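Morning - iron/sulfur cluster inputs below, output right after.
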Amino acid sequence: MKDCSCSYISGGAIEGTEFWLNDLWKFEAGDKNLLLDRQGHILLLKKNLCNTIWNQEISEDLLLKLLQRKFAYESENIDKNGTEKNSDIKPMFFMIDLTNKCNMECRYCLRNVEDDSDKESITNDMIDSICEYLAQYCKQIGDKRITIQPWGGEPLLETEKIFLLQDGLKKRGMNPQITIETNALLLSKGLMKELYQRGISIGVSIDGYQKIHDSQRVIHSGIGTHQVVERRIRSIQKLYGNDISTITTVTRNSLENLEDIIEYLAVDLGLIYIKLNFVHRSCFAMNDDLCLYAEEIADATIRIFQKILELHKRGIEVYEYNIWLKSMNLLTGKKLDVCNSNGCHGGKRMIAIDKHGDIFPCDVTDFPEERLGNIKTDKDLIALLENSVGEKAYFKEKKGNECEKCPWQHYCRGGCTVHMKCATQEQDVDMIECTINRNLYPKLISLILHEPERMNQLLGYEILKKEP
Amino acid sequence: MENYVKQHCFDNENVSRYYLSPYVYIVQTDEGLYVGREDDEREFCFYEEVDVYIQLFHKLSEGMTEGEIYRYLEEYFSEKSNEILSLLIGGGIVE
Ligand code: SF4
Ligand code: SF4
């Protein structure tokens, strides 16, 4: 794919007007420019129109577009960085840690499943208290549109608790979206049907075709689970249609076969919504041999991007979540993801609650120092989080030397707090996310400028208007 | 998701037309239609003629002149049209 050039332009007064132009990055390809500002807005302009900005020949019409997109400001109002407001603290995504029991023993699992000392699941009483807590919280914020992810271990080992949670919330006038990520071993047809009838969405972990999957995802005796998982996915598809997503973990063991794995998921299994995650080096990795370096992960991300484009060329519909999300970041500015739309929003737009009712900013429930409070004692969640943001190391701003002049800063903000915390060497930012962003975003912008129709395919709808 | 919202590439011809901002969100509830910008705290709720607004937003995603928007609004809101038009532009919903 063709590349595009990029230049950084410092803001300044727009001659002949009382307005100021914000700092921006200008990307150029063919006869088009894409302007990007520090708050993640973009503006697509034909080159000759764009040049009028710097030739001081700007028309009123273009000035209005720049003002509406926030590329231009009234001078006294200038807010270059779009500083975060406290109103950004409003969790809508809740992970409820039901159990750390698991019926599998994946080779790369970070949870210490061999430690039997804390294998109790959440109690029914605690589920009830969580329901009450969430109901009160929704009343406080005047918004019931929360999403809940029962978490584990394997969440389906506690299916009854998932239903108890849903029923408890329904009893309190709520109908949250519930989503589970499962290894699928317990997904009998009967259970699948019940989940479907209850409107619970399912994500299944599958690491690829049999040889790859069975070398990573095994039960305690070491036997692979591919056959069962593939069968379950086909049954889910019969019931849910395309509304099933999968999570694939890529390791050093499977890296080489990345394209074949995607081919298998999209073509052989006919999956439309896939997500690929990577096992990376960290102080918690149990099996170092499987871990990938940041550069390898960034390189693999570009390979995924290219493979998806190739599949689209062959008329196969498939969306890889991470690529889709970053394209959405650029084109819509919607903060769709807690982690990768506008930096880490753990503890701001998401919290995790563990089986003791302890509140954590993310699914870091294995780190006692990250505990923020407890549902029994901290009744006002927003107040708890607002206080924690000022006090806890978790919320400290992540900024490296290069972030200030980095075009992707709005989306990245130094990446994942937990990645950074668990890195094997001290870092100012999450180097994995940094390397991915610096490699992937330029490719996405090139696609927007050179082949808008293919960007539309990546997103699944015509967001970039066909030019006459 | 409002999958009719578009990012247009502006040239000397279409720069004078008005479009639905690609940064809007539109949520329809029992109360009315909530429309706001993703990137700030501006949000409006339209309680009446919800379908009229939705149709307008669809049209705006393809681009309209100021006169076209005004005439469309006038048909349904007569003397309030000017006020609504300035609200939509001032609120960053239309750009
Ligand atoms: S710490 Fe990482 S995983 Fe947790 S919310 Fe932040 S970005 Fe997401
Ligand atoms: S961490 Fe890297 S990608 Fe992220 S803002 Fe800083 S320099 Fe940019």
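Note: Chain B has a mean pLDDT of 91.

O.
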